[in-house]
Amino acid sequence: MEFHPIERAPAAFQHTVTAAEVRAMCHRAFGGEVRVSSAVELGWGTYNSTYRVDIGADHPVILRVAPEPGKQFRIERELMRNEYASTPYLAPLGPLLPRTLAVDFTHEIVGRDYVFQTMLDGIPAPEGLGAYPRTEWASFFGQMGEIARRIHDVRGTRFGPVHGPAYATWSETVIAYLDDTAADLDDVGLDAADVREVAALAAHQRGVLDEVTSPRLLHGDLWTVNVMIDPAASRPTITGVIDGDRAMWGDPAADWTIYRAGRRPGTERDAFWEAYGPPTSTPAAVTRALFYRARHVGAARLERHRLGNLRDLPETYDDLREVLTCLTR
Predict the structure, then answer these.
(1) Looking at residue 297, what is its pLDDT?
(2) Distance linking the first and last C-alpha atoms of the chain
(3) DSSP class of residue 205?
(4) How many CB atoms lie within 10 A of CB 329?
(5) pLDDT, position 44
(6) Residue 308 region, left (φ>0) first, then alpha (ψ -120 to 50), else beta?
(7) For the chain, percent helix, then strand, then coil, each to nearest 5?
(8) What gap in Å lies between CA 98 and CA 119, rounded to an integer?
(9) C-alpha closest to that of 19 among 34, 35, 37, 3
(10) What is the pLDDT of residues 7-30, one digit of tens each?
(11) 295 and 254 in contact (C-beta within 8 Å)?
(12) Which domains are assigned to the chain?
């Protein structure tokens, strides 16, 4: 078997499995007679380890291997299991989603969760969008708005990650996430005082958060890096949506997609809102958006630390200082 892992430093968060482990995982999933001819680790994402595996079928399959349990932050615990639980609820996306071929959470072959999925057509949007003139990008963001709307129209019965834990109210969900973020920051030696201050304000303003009473499905990580596009299309055309491991039940306005779509008004991203529908701008919605911004910034602080991106860490403190100023004004 040809095996091409990505070489990383020993202390890197992501690390490869072995060729023997890939072969064993394939035999468990597809039978001992399957001949694994090659496995190539892909550079997609910064959390799971992802491989394109040729097992002699019509198309290669994708193998995704989660980090070891001991490496997972509280706010990222068992994300692969969460994605597996969320798949039935993402059914409105139809053929845009990869199909699950096999799942193994036993840790008998390798001490990590793993899943085999079909390989979607296309290339990651960040690799392909640059081939189109900027004037064509609006159609891409319009498609993103349509996809986000399909996801957010799915209703749930409780708040929190699809896999759990479940919460009766939206305020409990937001506060628990902020508390876990602060504890994760403590664990890696980063100052979490501002995140705790936001959590305290969220507890004080529970009523504003609990105006959200209807749990809706959130993808959790829908943006360009988790979208595939057709490299041969005359305009940017989305062919797939991946990595739903952060899916949860909550307020659609809290989704990563909404946060990103609103970051650059007056650009091609405005097409997102034309397809999705205009954002709510009531005083309560504006206040909730500040708590959601703090949620995203806290997670970004952890991500930057994990990736060794120390240069951009101070920006997260500036961002949360601004959030706190607005919340206490």
Answers:
(1) 98
(2) 62
(3) T
(4) 5
(5) 76
(6) left
(7) 50, 15, 35
(8) 7
(9) 3
(10) 998 889 999 999 999 999 999 999
(11) yes
(12) 2-119 (3.30.200.20), 124-328 (3.90.1200.10)
CB 235 within 8 A of CB 206: no
Report which of 118, 98, 100, 116 is spatially closest to residue 28, judged by C-alpha positions: 116
Q: How far is CA 13 from the centre of its chain?
A: 17
CA pair distance 160, 210, nearest whole angstrom: 14
Q: Shortest CA distance to 130 belongs to which of 271, 236, 269?
A: 236
Q: At a CB cut-off of 8 Å and minimum separation 6, what does 273 contact?
A: 145, 261, 279
CA separation for the pair 228, 239 (Å, rounded): 5
Residue 10: the pLDDT is 86
Q: Are strands 61-65 and 49-54 parallel, antiparallel or unpaired?
A: antiparallel
The number of residues making up the chain comes to: 329
DSSP string, 83-113: HHHHGGGGGGGGGGSPPEEEEE-S-SSSSS-
Residues of the chain with pLDDT under 50: none
The 3-state DSSP class for residue 160 equals strand
Torsion over CA: 277, 283, 287, 288 (sign): negative
Res 59: pLDDT: 85
Rounded Cα distance, 164 and 157, in Å: 12
Give the pairing of strands 2-4 and 38-42.
Answer: parallel
Beta strands in the chain (DSSP E): 2-4, 38-42, 49-54, 61-65, 100-104, 114-118, 123-124, 160-161, 216-218, 227-229, 238-241, 248-250
- 237, 230 contact by CB (below 8 A): yes
